[in-house]
Amino acid sequence: MDFISILSIFVMACFVGYYVVWSVTPALHTPLMAVTNAISSVIIVGALVASAEAGSPAAKWLGLAAVVLASVNIFGGFAVTERMLAMYKKKERPAAKEPRT
Q1: CB contact at 8 A, 51 and 62
Q2: N or C, where is the chain less crowded by C-beta within 10 Å?
Q3: Whole-structure pTM over 0.85, yes or no?
Q4: Every domain of the chain and the residues it spans
Q5: Measured in whole angstroms, how far is the alpha carbon of residue 85 from the centre of its chain?
Q6: Catalysed reaction per UniProt (predicted)?
Q7: How far is CA 27 from CA 85, 91, 101, in A?
Q8: What mean pLDDT value characterizes the chain?
Q9: Contact 32, 21 (CB under 8 A)
């Protein structure tokens, strides 16, 4: 494939991803983050395999960059998911003060 075809696919994927993510209702946000974390873990495995088989130092550095960026995405996804789930937990009420006698 030539560069223009690959660039066109990338741009279309960016637009589709943008509109899919922004049209998700808040109730589905947590399952979407879980799927995103799973995809990022597959990206890490692929980046590790690709960088291990790479012959040039540039490919190894690109593999390292892919691992770092996917790791940031995974940990950020877990943080956002934890925060979203915390919003649905019942808040504890402070204990009522006992009346003075």
Answers
A1: yes
A2: C
A3: no
A4: 26-88
A5: 16
A6: NAD(+) + NADPH + H(+)(in) = NADH + NADP(+) + H(+)(out)
A7: 10, 19, 49
A8: 78
A9: yes
